[in-house]
Amino acid sequence: MFNLFLLQLLNGAQFGILLFLVAAGLTLVFGIMDFINLAHGVLYMIGGYVMAALSAATGNFWLSLALVLPVTLAVGLVLELLVFRRLYDRSHLDQVLATFGLVLVLSELVKILWGAAPLSVAMPEALAGSIPLAGLMRYPVYRIAVIGAGLGVALALWFVIARTRVGMLLRAGAANRAMVSALGVDINRLFMLVFAAGAMLAGFAGAIVSPILSVDPGMGDSILILTFVVIVIGGVGSVKGAFLAALLVGIVDTMGRMFGPILLKSLMEPAAAAQAGRTIAPMLVYILMAAVLFWRPSGLFGRSVAR
Amino acid sequence: MRRLALSTALIMSMLPLAAQAQEPLKIGVLLTLSGPPAVLGEHARDGVLLAEKTLGDKVGGREVELIVVDDEGKPDIAAQKARDLVEAQGADFVIGPIFSNIMNAIAGPVTSGGAILVSPNAGPSNFAGKDCNPDIFVVSYQNDQMPRTLAEHMNRQGVANAYLLAPNYQAGKDSLNGFKSVFKGEVAGELFVPLGQLDFSAELAQIAASQPAAVYAFMPGGMGVNLVKQWSQAGLGSIPLMSAFTVDETTLPAEQDAAVGMLTGSNWAPDLQTPGNAEFVAAFQGAYGRVPSLYAVGGYDALMLIDSAVKKAGTEDREALRAALKQADFQSLRGSFKFSTNNFPVQDFYLTKAIKAEDGTYRTSVVEKVFTAAADSYVGECPMK
């Protein structure tokens, strides 16, 4: 049982890392620009599709992964210039409507370009296979690599935000946008940068997940909701909060699916426990969110909002 | 005299339009054509279109108008579009749907509106049993039959215990119940996952811990792609994964080598030796650039069935049309085919295996016949004779 626990902990961490990569961009955009971007999941999907297209064309996983980054960065820049820039000063309702429209348009575009059937990306030879963990349990090498890559990105982000001038401006922008602008910082350029970097991170997440999951037109929608849960739990605008909340959500979700029914079995008869377990497990993440919001209304690392 | 002529003209104009006998036959095609499972609907639609082309753009010897609509995978939208097809557009037949929950939503609007529903895929148990209907024909199969085929195969192999995996919705539960009604070994464990879940790491870990002799899974569409890909990555290659609606020509293009060798239960495969099947597969590949699936076969056979019945009985006499449909006097791609009293097929079921063909495409291939001329197990509950 302990081995299984360890294995599920790794699974939860891997899922959490993935959520973090998508959530990092979203929390900055939401926190600094006060901008609700429902199209963020689409960028994750585009990352997956670009990866699938490039790896089919080049046959090289690493080269494709390296090319996905500039492509999704460019997609982010174009979207910012064409659409989002016009929405910063509008109400949240306008932002939700416009970005939701964008979700529909881009999903349809992807379907026109690549069709509705799920695509796949071949796993690189070096990372295929699994390593023995304990007893009969094995763990896929690739998932360990995903965890490693995610931790690397988290470290890099921490460094940029805590130790560089851009990071300082970002933190200042999140605290008081008007003041930063008044001090002569080109806030629009800062926004563009944040937005494009967020798009690139989401695209990166979509690309590295493509050998594990299939690439299909609905992949962005499924992750977007959990991403919003993550940034709300972590505190809007806080990358540190997003990191911890993503791990928390990933682990709670994975553990709940596994151990929920087992725990319930000690309380009620097995059939009822199995039924209740599979009903409650998907709700656990939302129960966690409700609990966090009850005790900390602005999230784990959120500042008390005063706008 | 003039008044008489005028009133005659008036009366004439009030006669039903049906009097003009050679009006084109209207057939609605209601399938899921958007969202992640859209590829299933596209296969069925292309099957219908290929049948139309094969018949020389005439169905039952009449001009035909196919009206293709997307149900978006949502029962409420499907019901609304079914009503529109039948009432506003005057469709004589509706071919659809893909999903069983949609079937429950559209059966009422289609049949009460006076049209006949021909399902190319969905075959929920209620319509095979107590809700069977003289205006509903299912050319595919009853949902339980694929899992029963695999369970029977496992019995013959003497599989001592099996782990079961399905999404947590009606068709998933039906599938596992169908499996368990035949399987004689022990059920090592049962797992239900939320519909649409794509990462199976938690479930695979539990299966690895339990080390069953075999695993039965029902994971349609993109869920199946992910399950199959993650299966070997998790080091579970030594445990046989047998599945229904998980490894077929709609998912194999994405699963590729990860699925090769996996077993599944089906009523058809591209290399099935039946009259016209090889030509169908070649024509489908030529026209749509992909290997057809059982969904494409469902669409093709649905239109062929309608063609045979309309040729015999026309559309005016409802009783004659029903009788002609029930005779199933068409050449199914599956070879021997007839209807039970509940309008569900009596047909053969096969164990099939995923292979990589010589032309580089991935497809299923017949391993052996498991059931011969099998009817479903609900036909006894159907009051129709």
TrEMBL record, chain A:
GO terms under cellular component: plasma membrane
TM stretches of this protein: 12-31, 38-56, 62-84, 96-121, 141-161, 190-213, 225-252, 273-295
Cell inner membrane listed as a keyword: no
Record-linked InterPro entries: ABC_transp_permease, BCAA_transport_permease
Keyword Cell membrane part of the UniProt annotation: yes
Keywords linked to the UniProt accession: Amino-acid transport, Cell membrane, Membrane, Transmembrane, Transmembrane helix, Transport
Subcellular compartments: Cell membrane
Chief location: membrane
GO molecular function: transmembrane transporter activity
Gene Ontology terms describing biological process: amino acid transport
Membrane topology: Multi-pass membrane protein
Similarity remark: Belongs to the binding-protein-dependent transport system permease family. LivHM subfamily.
Protein name: Branched-chain amino acid ABC transporter permease
Native species: Paracoccus litorisediminis
UniProtKB/TrEMBL annotation, chain B:
Signal peptide: 1-21
Highest taxon in the source lineage: Bacteria
Entry's Gene Ontology BP terms: amino acid transport
Gene3D superfamilies registered for this protein in UniProt: 3.40.50.2300
Keyword terms, alphabetized: Amino-acid transport, Signal, Transport
Presence of keyword Transport: yes
Pfam families to which the protein is assigned, alphabetical: Peripla_BP_6
Leucine-binding protein domain ranges (all copies): 24-355
PANTHER family: LEUCINE-SPECIFIC-BINDING PROTEIN, PERIPLASMIC BINDING PROTEIN OF ABC TRANSPORTER FOR NATURAL AMINO ACIDS
Family per record: Belongs to the leucine-binding protein family.
Protein's UniProt name: ABC transporter substrate-binding protein
Lineage: Bacteria, Pseudomonadati, Pseudomonadota, Alphaproteobacteria, Rhodobacterales
